[in-house]
Design goal:
173 residues; alpha+beta; two-stranded antiparallel ribbon; 11 strands; 29% helix
Length: 173
């Protein structure tokens, strides 16, 4: 095998490996809200596509977020405000919470923070959150999940490269 063939194969294998790793990246955050007998979970992109925003009110909305609220599957809009207010469900109030601001950047292009946050419900009209203190955990899925599809693709690429090298060597002999 010539040096050109080795370099070419190394380059192709590197390109396939890099593209497989990028394709497997899931840029999402898991939100878990617990407290007062409430357990609400949902997933949002770490830099979400904002459905609407208001500079006047200092808030943005993410439409049609799929969530699990105490075992019930619900699709709802989520509103996040400058200063830390966080509402779930614009039509049927699921929760209305206040605490630290959960995002950085502009309201038209926010990026969520990760970590644990203490929030307080201050209204009696919510369907799932009575007045009291709640914990919101925001976890970066990309840091906690092993990208199995890219690992399998990398292994398969190596096997095919070895098989291809054997075929080329057999025809060259």
């Amino acid at each position: 095998m010539s040096i050109k063939q080795v370099i070419l194969r190394t380059f192709v294998l590197g390109a396939i490996t890099a593209s497989a790793t990028l394709a497997a990246k899931a840029d999402t955050l898991d939100f878990t809200l617990t407290g007062q007998g409430t357990d609400i979970t949902f997933t949002i992109n770490s830099s979400p596509t904002v459905s609407s925003y208001s500079n006047h009110n200092g808030e943005f909305t993410i439409d049609n977020v799929s969530l699990d609220a105490n075992g019930h599957h619900i699709t709802s809009n989520m509103e996040f405000y400058l200063g830390g207010k966080f509402d779930g469900g614009t039509a049927s109030e699921l929760f209305d919470l206040a605490g630290p601001q959960l995002f950085t950047g502009l309201i038209s292009d926010p990026t969520f923070k990760t970590g644990n946050f203490t929030l307080t419900s201050y209204s009696n009209s919510e369907q799932y959150c009575d007045p009291g203190t709640y914990n919101l955990s925001i976890v970066d899925v990309t840091k906690t999940v092993t990208p199995e599809p890219s690992s399998i693709l990398l292994l398969a690429t190596g096997v095919f490269a070895l098989a291809g090298a054997g075929v080329v060597k057999r025809f060259a002999a």
